[in-house]
Amino acid sequence: MTARDDVWFLDRFSQSWENLALCAALAERGLRGRIVDWDDLAMSGGLAGAVRDGQPVAAPRVAVVKSRVITRRSAGDLALIYDELEALEEAGTRISNPVAAIRRCRNKLRQAALLARAGLPVPETRSVSSQDDIQACMKDWGEVVLKPIWGHASLDVVRMRPGGRGIEEGTVLGIREEIASWHLLEHHKTLCAQPFVPNPARDLRVVVIGSTIAAADYHVSTSPDGAVRHFLYPLKVERAPISPGLEEIVLGAVVALGLDSAVIDLVESPSGPVIIEVNEGLTVWRTVEGTEHDRTPHGFTALVTDQLEALAATTASSSVPAPKRIGSETGRPDAVSMRSTS
Ligand SMILES: Nc1ncnc2c1ncn2[C@@H]1O[C@H](COP(=O)(O)OP(=O)(O)O)[C@@H](O)[C@H]1O
Ligand SMILES: [Mg+2]
Fold it and tell me: How many domains does the chain have?
């Protein structure tokens, strides 16, 4: 059997400062990290854990899924990406974040439902697949925010009010609102709708690694309409205080979704912080490490390395684990032999 790498960083396009820093920090602890481009990886159809650069290789002890693996995909590829990640888990890799957690987090409807059931503050969230659905939301809430269920980077996030210009009798959609919502629905089929949560034109962004709050900053809008993500008006970053209530919310969200690490966006509603989105995984920290925004004891890189080392310790180091019989967890005979008798 080939030796297993300790940690793979699954990514696309670039090696990234963070991946390189983590490989160097792991090496100092005697662990081997490797940056693997998603396009160089294929699923194994046999005993090997995976196929990398065309060669069968052992599955690593831990694999970190960087967000670009999921977000920079072609339309229709999502199911296969999840299959490929689950196949690595089946080969004995501890994926971070776990694939089930990535899935429940990346779908904004599922995420909102799970957070609400955990008693955490989230805006009311509905699935809309027609203009009638959108109008029903507007009648109930007034101003709404529409967004793609699997969206990111504020792409196609649209805020609109009922009663726009040129409204037709019997509707609440103005001319522009009708056109924009038609195209959004045509493209995405189903969208997520929420009431617009009034806030002081800033997001509160909190980074959680394990059970540590690694950063908490305001993303302050400089745009006249208060939008935080705006191409013409870049946001300003300011350090934010962490109240006990905020700490409880963000750590509760990470537990509710089963995540190892997350970047959580909140807005400050009149009744307190509301979670707008939990982004699983970590974004760049090269601009934060060692600055006043870094709240970790020894830097982001060291804290993430601690976490990876702990995760690696939960898996075997030497070789590929023995293949697991399907159904063995429940003590049943394996599924293949059961099927062959029917
Ligand atoms: N319901 C809402 N009320 C107020 N602001 C919102 C709401 N939903 C989204 N926003 C604003 O839009 C931004 C992008 O929304 P988000 O749900 O995080 O989408 P994405 O996944 O594309 O980042 C948020 O950071 C926040 O500033
Ligand atoms: Mg967001």
Answer: 3
| Residue 206 β-bridge partners | 216, 264
C-alpha–C-alpha distance, residues 92 and 321, integer Å = 6
Amino acid at 255: V
Ion ligand 2 residue ranges (Cβ < 5 Å): 265, 277
Centre of ligand 2 to C-alpha 301, Å, is 23
Q: How far apart are CA 28 and CA 44, in angstroms?
A: 31
Q: Separation of 82 CA from ligand 2 center, angstroms?
A: 21
Q: Among the three residues 282, 313, 337, which one is the final residue of a domain in this structure?
A: 282
Q: Where are the alpha helices (DSSP H) in 34-174?
A: 67-71, 78-90, 99-106, 108-117, 131-141
Residue 216 is assigned to a structural domain of this protein: yes
Q: Which ligand does the CA of 153 lie closest to?
A: 1
Q: What is the CATH number of the domain that holds 258?
A: 3.30.470.20
Give the tens place of pLDDT for each residue, 131-161. Answer: 999 999 999 999 999 999 998 999 999 999 9
Please give the radius of gyration of the chain, using alpha carbons only, rounded to the nearest integer. 22
Instruction: Indicate if 112 and 206 belong to the same structural domain.
Output: yes
Q: Tell me which ligand sits closest to the C-alpha of residue 124.
A: 1
The residues with which 146 forms a beta bridge, in sequence order, are 158, 193
Contact 242, 266 (CB under 8 A): no
* Tens of pLDDT, residues 9-53: 999 998 999 999 999 999 999 999 999 999 999 999 999 999 999
Query: What does the alpha-carbon distance between residue 306 and residue 317 come to, in Å, rounded to a whole number?
Result: 17
Q: Which atom of ligand 1 is nearest to the CA of 277?
A: 18
